[in-house]
Amino acid sequence: MEQEKYAIIDIGSNTIRLVIYTRDKSGRFSESENVKAVARLRNYLTDDNALSEEGIQVLIDTLKSFQEVTRHHQLEAIKCVATAAVRQAKNQEAIIQRVGEETDFTMRILSEYEEAHYGYLAVVNSMSYKSGITVDIGGGSTELTLFEDRELIHFHSFPFGALSLKKQFIEGDTPKNSELKALREYLEQQFLSLDWIEGKKLPLIGIGGSARNLAQIHQEKIDYPLSGVHQYTMKRKEVDETNEWLGSMEFDDLQRVEGLSRDRADIIIPAVEVFNCLMALIDAEIFALSRKGLRDGVFYEEMTKDFEMPVFPNVIEESFYDLAIDYDINLTHAIHVTNSSLMIVRELQKQGFLALTEKDHQWIRLGSSMYNLGTYIDSESSNQHTFYLLANRTIDGLLHKERILVALLASYKNKNLFKRNATSYEGWFTEEELEKFNIIGAVIKFAYSLNATKRDIVEDIQLESQKEELIFSIQCREDWKPEQYQVEKQKKHLEKLLKKAITVHFHE
């Protein structure tokens, strides 16, 4: 059966990129091809804002190389959109005509609002922030949005980007102190022209290649244990320190920085100055990276146009539904294990063995719903596969620490394996948190054994605490002997952590 594929071509001021999306068995679209060309169209804008013939030819040649790829794949549709460099060109109608006549593509120029709106759509459909300020710095423009309760409130497009800032303020490959001072003063003046930025105390969410490079540079610098940058976060101090470190280098050294694309070496400092300035004005504590951007926003709009609902109601639920489909998880069984886990932790809370927050209940729901998904690969070593799959897959809506936490709970086998898996993330969790999540992991394993035959027979769980013993009363609607055998095998993990003997009584 032929797979359903769509393509988007994003003609930016710095790069032109072709992305092909393929529908998987869950119905979710994911990138299957991603081709990039560094065209720097912004540099071909003349003094009177026309895209030169040389620049138009660079665009045409790049699109012709892309059409060799798009002709190879059987695509349902191709969207070709252009941003600031073409939008700012006074000869844009002639450019559109040339593209239509000389290539397979029909080019659409996005308005400032559309460019900002698509970035906002990408963020709210792939991250869990309810409110925030997004910044998408391209080569020739910078888009800002403010969203609250996941609704777009304000947007603005500035007619400057990393390339134009470099051209305007920095003469050589790296800036002098006087050039940096002038750049910073200019940025602050520009951003303060908006009355909805200063002192907002919201996270700053970066979109685009320069933001991605900043996250990659920091990850390499601190020897970060996870792969992937989507939803990666940096503190304001870390952004500032990275900026100073980059600014202290000679250009040859800058080009060799791990995580930095060589073609961005000359524009990374102006871009990070934008992030730094905005964080200070917003009084933002967190810089978060969204790997999803304009292209994904265009795609979300296209894929949801029939539903009149471009914003997903719940990003995390959407992600975990995709996981369940991808790894053939029995959803009825998963819901039953989750319900049993929640009944047990509530009983333990009543008896004073656990103190849980509402967030903790969310982790219990997610960890228990994904428990043992590694059986999809191999039942014998399912715990190890479960941890690896969840820890190394981008899960929209979960920050990296949260993803590791869910992986620790969903892969729980015993105290030693939990500790071994957590070791790579030393400093991410406090001792108190690890102790609490160790108990929760053992509870989920216990709850999983209560549905060993996947018959969903448990209806209620009660707990009585005696001096040296915990007595579980499990109400079932069918014969429980297979579950009883599994529970007797697995209860030792909970006994060790709670330091109490456990007796389990089953009854109808």
TrEMBL record:
Presence of the UniProt keyword Iron in the record: no
Span of the signal peptide: none
GO molecular function per UniProt: exopolyphosphatase activity
SUPFAM superfamilies named among the record's database cross-references: Actin-like ATPase domain (SSF53067), HD-domain/PDEase-like (SSF109604)
Catalysed reaction, written as an equation: [phosphate](n) + H2O = [phosphate](n-1) + phosphate + H(+)
Enzyme Commission number(s) from the entry: 3.6.1.11
Gene3D superfamilies, sorted: 3.30.420.40, Exopolyphosphatase. Domain 2, Hypothetical protein af1432
Keyword rRNA-binding: no
Residue stretches making up the Ppx/GppA phosphatase C-terminal domain: 318-483
CDD domains the UniProt entry points to: ASKHA_NBD_HpPPX-GppA-like
Pfam families: Ppx-GppA, Ppx-GppA_III
Keywords recorded for this protein, A-Z: Hydrolase
Family: Belongs to the GppA/Ppx family.
Name under which the protein is recorded: Exopolyphosphatase
Organism: Planococcus plakortidis
